[in-house]
């Protein structure tokens, strides 16, 4: 009886195991934080320069990102700049700016360059993206819009675009676009090769 | 074999005093139930007459009246056994006694403290050491064993390494159940509460085949403390307070036993720590909050028993804030700055990044002893492991959602038979079937690192042990395991092409048009694993023992090694598995020579482990993303050779003074090009001096010095492009930190309270000199120093 009991138990076990297996299909997951595209648009009247970053499969995928620049920066010009972050793997493309605007107090863009005396100034503040009164910390910049001013220097240089979240926006220099004391975590850190002619 | 004598005690009151003919007889044998051997010299007493069995175990009682008699069989160490017989109806009767009753007395939930193998290297730590680590983790306690180290993520996530190997190569048996707790990840610590164990044995290597055939590193066997099968209630409470982390733990257990063999045991642990501190700064976000509870009940009879066991474990673990890095530049900056980038004020709060792990374990077990044969045990166990990993994500709203959400469910049925009735040999045979399901919740919004899968395992083993003579024991065993993994894995089209899978695996693709440029595959992989062991134990001159063992073992790749693909947020690295990875095969030879006597003793234990197709994960490259460059870590296979030696010496210089010394060394290389293997423990040399004075309430004090050498053998670093520097730089991701020396002090006393209770008081000071150091096997060595000085006050009461 003991052998039978053993076999019976094993049989029950086997049935149990079989009944557990199912063929439920796995649901695909798309990276919800995927950024495929970053567009920096610099406008001077009718003259537009765009800096475009594109990585079709994001950080998870092996495809190398590409970056291209349409137009050439002119000397001694102040451009009105804006940045647009998109996830084009979605249809229609997801506008990531909305998410950043929604938590404007936790995010900030930085535009960094050491070349040609180019200066950047923020032209937005957190209260542009929320309903709260424009006072105190709600006046800190986010960096979705800015101005970029060239000098009379020309040549090939670099412009680094950084987006950080959970940074210290009150730290020294951060509100003026100095990243040194910002801390936080990067969502974007990309360097464009630029020409000033 | 030594026989116990038994006495039969006549009991008054059941004897009917009516007038009858008193000329009846009772005859038979007294036999050992265990192995059927007649027991000589057993005594049978009735009225005031005592009869002894002869050399064949036979007895003859004459002059009995035609009525009922009741007898009690007892033995100095055993519970009484009462036999009532009606002499009117019976004239012959064999009595079965159990000379192994000593063992049966205890609630043997899984085996005794005895060795797990006869010939392999192994070591057991008991309650004294485990109590000392009550507020720490299993991995911390096991480092007391020579040859065992740990792979840490900070100070709270501690994975045991046995002779250089960890993770899926180390099997953890928790109360008779093989833990299924996602051991594949470097930052996944065993989900066990150290306080549930009464003993922990480490078998260094795969020789303990009954637990599994894939333990290329070894087996850790955790067993509960035992309770006698008598009417009793006993318990223990351990309270520990620690200065570093400003927290502590409390653990309590209570056991109620009944003479009938019933028992019930409950246990609970609560552990809470805030941020721990390095000598020079607070390690922000390193708090833990651990909760554990277990309940067991059952019955242990003379010939059978069953028990039910359930345990719950929940741990919330903060991960060092500074270890959350964005890209390779952050990593370079961390390595160069020598100080964590985030240092905040002390807090008990646990913020992102953090882990939340929960483990449920349920077990039902039944055993029956068969006369002259052995013991049959069958067990079903159920495990549910839930893992959440929370990262710092782009928005606060997203940070509330875990980046990793895995649920691993395992059902296992095992049945084995231990044939132990023969005095000079015994063998055990058993089978196992297991079903496991992994569910990776898609709601994370992060592509799965580990896919959904079903896994089926089946195994069978036979192991034997033969006592050649009083000095020599031979053991051997073979095991076969079948593993099938049936996964549903999404690949990005780009990755699928990039890895060359289209050529080799196009047949497993089931859908090429999955949203987000992905394709769905359903790989089904089967593995047949053979393992075997043979060895000898030779005891000579009473105080020497020689052990030699050869173990062959095969391990199928784990889901991480096969399927990882993509950015592992918490590690800030891209991890790539490989579908082509096949099982690894280890041939391990180990020797140990042990001498033990009252004055002194030593052990020398060299080993050689040759692993064909060893699977390793190492940094190979970087990949550029919008967030900057990330290091790419890739799994690959190579033939490896691990050579090592564990040695220890102790000496009792004087009745009060003792010193202990141990040293372990391991060298791991790839066989073909002599490249050093990644994450091999550096040599370490420990020396301890102990003063003990039993007269002073068991006072003992010890000072321990630990010297950790620098690991000078490591794989070469990789060169990466740093956007910050604007050029290629060497990423010193493999460079080990410097050697370091630590001093620890431990002291304790024991007081009797009343007649049965004892109070133990202990004080431990770790890292007395507050030395700042970094450990090669701590994954956070890039970001921060290890723990600074820590005072631990420990109080334990047995009642």
Q: Can you summarize this structure?
A:
The complex is a heterodimer of chains A (197) and B (799). Chain A is mainly beta and 197 residues long.
Uncertain spans of chain A:
17-22
Order of helices and strands of chain A: HEEEEEHEEEEE
Task: Give the distance, in angstroms, between the N- and C-terminal Cα atoms of chain B.
Answer: 36 Å
Average of per-residue pLDDT values of chain A = 86
Q: How many E-type strands of chain A?
A: 10
The count of DSSP E runs of length 2 or more, i.e. the number of strands of chain B, is 43
The tally of helices of chain A reads 2
Question: How would you describe the overall organization of this protein?
Answer:
The complex is a heterodimer of chains A (197) and B (799). With 197 residues, chain A is mainly beta. Chain A has 2 helices and 10 strands; from the N terminus they run H-E-E-E-E-E-H-E-E-E-E-E. In chain A, the strands form 2 sheets. In chain A, strands 1, 2, 3, 4, 5, 7 and 8 form a 7-stranded antiparallel β-sheet that branches. Chain A has a 3-stranded antiparallel β-sheet with strand order 6-9-10, with no helix packed on it. Residues 17-22 of chain A have low confidence and may be disordered. Chain B is built from 8 helices and 43 strands. In chain B, the strands form 7 sheets. Chain B has a 22-stranded antiparallel beta barrel. A 5-stranded mixed β-sheet of chain B has the order 9-14-15-12-13. In chain B, strands 1-6-7 form a 3-stranded antiparallel β-sheet, with no helix packed on it. Residues 1-19 and 100-113 of chain B have low confidence and may be disordered. With 799 residues, chain B is mainly beta. The longest helix of chain B is centred in the middle third of the chain and has 10 residues, at 328-337. The chains are: A mainly beta (197), B mainly beta (799). The interface between A and B is large, with 51 and 64 residues.
């Amino acid at each position: 009886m003991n052998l039978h009991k053993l076999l019976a138990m094993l049989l029950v076990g086997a049935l149990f195991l079989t009944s557990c297996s199912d063929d439920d299909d796995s649901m695909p997951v798309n990276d919800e934080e995927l950024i495929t595209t970053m567009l920096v648009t610099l406008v001077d009247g009718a003259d537009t320069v765009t800096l475009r970053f594109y990585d079709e499969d994001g950080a998870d995928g092996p495809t190398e990102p590409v970056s291209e620049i349409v137009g050439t920066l002119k000397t001694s010009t102040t451009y009105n700049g804006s940045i647009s972050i998109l996830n084009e793997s979605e249809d229609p493309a997801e506008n990531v700016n909305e998410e950043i605007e929604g938590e404007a107090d936790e995010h900030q863009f930085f535009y960094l360059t050491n070349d040609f005396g180019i200066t950047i100034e923020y032209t937005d503040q957190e209260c542009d993206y929320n309903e709260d009164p424009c006072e105190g910390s709600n006046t800190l910049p986010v960096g979705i819009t800015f101005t970029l001013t060239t000098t009379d220097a020309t040549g090939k240089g670099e412009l680094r675009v950084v987006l950080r979240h959970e940074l210290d926006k009150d730290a020294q220099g951060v509100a003026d676009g100095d990243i040194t004391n910002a801390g936080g975590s990067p969502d974007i850190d990309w360097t464009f090769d630029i020409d000033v002619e | 074999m030594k026989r116990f004598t038994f006495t039969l005690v006549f009991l008054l009151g059941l004897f009917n005093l009516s007038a009858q003919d008193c000329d009846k007889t009772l005859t038979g044998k007294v036999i050992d139930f265990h192995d059927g051997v007649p027991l000589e010299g057993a005594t049978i007493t009735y009225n005031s007459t005592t009869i002894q069995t002869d050399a064949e175990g036979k007895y003859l009682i004459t002059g009995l009246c035609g009525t009922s008699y009741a007898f009690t069989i007892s033995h100095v160490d055993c519970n009484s056994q009462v036999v009532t017989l009606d002499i009117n109806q019976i004239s012959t009767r064999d009595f079965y006694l159990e000379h192994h009753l000593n063992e049966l007395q205890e609630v043997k939930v899984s085996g005794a403290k005895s060795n797990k193998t006869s010939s392999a290297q192994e070591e057991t730590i008991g309650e004294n050491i485990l109590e000392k680590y009550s507020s720490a983790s299993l991995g911390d306690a096991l480092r007391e064993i020579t040859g065992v180290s740990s792979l840490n993520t900070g100070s709270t996530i501690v994975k045991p390494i046995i002779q250089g190997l960890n993770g899926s190569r180390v099997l953890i048996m928790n109360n008779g159940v093989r833990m299924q707790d996602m051991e594949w990840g470097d930052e996944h610590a065993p989900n066990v509460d150290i306080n549930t164990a009464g003993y922990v044995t480490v078998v260094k290597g795969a020789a303990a085949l009954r637990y599994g055939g894939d333990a290329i590193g070894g087996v850790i066997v955790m067993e509960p403390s035992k309770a006698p099968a008598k009417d009793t209630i006993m318990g223990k409470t351990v309270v520990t307070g620690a200065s570093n982390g400003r927290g502590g733990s409390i653990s309590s257990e209570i056991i109620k036993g009944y003479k009938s063999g019933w028992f019930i045991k409950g246990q609970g642990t609560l552990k809470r720590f805030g941020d721990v501190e390095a000598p020079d700064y607070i390690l922000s976000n390193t708090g833990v909050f651990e909760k554990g509870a277990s309940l067991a009940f059952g019955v242990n009879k003379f010939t059978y028993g069953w028990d039910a066991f359930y345990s719950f474990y929940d741990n919330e673990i903060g991960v060092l804030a500074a270890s959350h890095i964005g890209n390779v530049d952050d990593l370079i900056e961390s390595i160069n700055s020598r100080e964590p980038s985030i240092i905040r004020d002390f807090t008990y709060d646990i913020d992102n990044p953090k882990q939340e792990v929960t483990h449920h374990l349920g077990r039902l077990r039944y055993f029956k002893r068969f006369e002259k044969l052995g013991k049959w045990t069958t067990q079903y166990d159920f495990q549910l492991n839930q893992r959440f990993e929370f990262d710092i994500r782009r928005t606060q709203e997203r940070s509330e959602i875990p980046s990793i959400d895995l649920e691993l469910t395992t059902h296992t049925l095992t049945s084995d038979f231990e044939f132990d009735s023969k005095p000079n040999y015994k063998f055990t045979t058993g089978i196992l079937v297991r079903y496991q399901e992994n569910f990776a919740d898609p709601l994370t919004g992060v592509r799965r690192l580990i896919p959904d899968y079903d896994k089926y395992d089946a195994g069978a083993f036979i192991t034997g042990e033969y006592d050649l003579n009083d000095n020599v024991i031979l053991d051997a065993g073979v095991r076969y395991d079948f593993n099938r993994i049936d996964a549903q894995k999404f690949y990005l089209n780009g990755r699928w092409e990039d890895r060359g899978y289209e050529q080799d695996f196009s047949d497993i693709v089931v859908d090429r048009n999955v949203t987000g440029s992905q394709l769905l595959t359903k790989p089904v992989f089967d593995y047949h694993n053979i393992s075997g062991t043979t060895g000898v134990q030779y005891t000579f001159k009473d105080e020497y023992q020689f052990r030699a063992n050869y173990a062959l073992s095969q391990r199928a790749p784990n889901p991480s090694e096969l399927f990882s693909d993509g950015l592992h947020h918490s590690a800030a690295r891209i991890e790539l598995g490989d579908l082509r990875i096949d099982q690894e095969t280890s041939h391990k030879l180990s020797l140990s020579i042990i001498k033990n006597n009252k004055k002194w003793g030593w052990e020398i234990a060299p080993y050689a482990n040759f692993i064909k197709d060893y699977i390793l994960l190492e940094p190979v490259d970087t990949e550029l993303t919008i967030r900057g460059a990330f290091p790419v870590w890739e799994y690959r296979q190579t033939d490896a050779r691990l050579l090592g030696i564990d040695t220890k010496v102790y000496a009792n210089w004087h009745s009060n003074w003792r010193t202990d010394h141990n040293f372990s060394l391991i060298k791991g290389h790839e066989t073909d090009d002599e490249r050093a293997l990644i994450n091999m423990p550096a040599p370490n040399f420990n020396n301890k001096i102990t003063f003990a004075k039993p007269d002073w309430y068991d006072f003992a004090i010890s000072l321990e010095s630990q010297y950790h050498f620098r690991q000078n053998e490591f794989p070469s670093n990789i060169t990466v492009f740093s956007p910050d520097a604007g050029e290629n730089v060497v990423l010193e991701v493999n460079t080990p930190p410097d050697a370091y020396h630590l001093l620890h002090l431990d002291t304790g006393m024991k007081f009797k309270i009343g007649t049965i209770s004892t109070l133990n008081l202990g004080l431990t000071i770790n890292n007395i000199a507050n030395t700042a150091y970094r450990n090669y096997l701590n994954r956070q060595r890039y970001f921060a120093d290890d723990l600074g000085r820590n005072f631990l006050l420990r109080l334990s009461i047995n009642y």
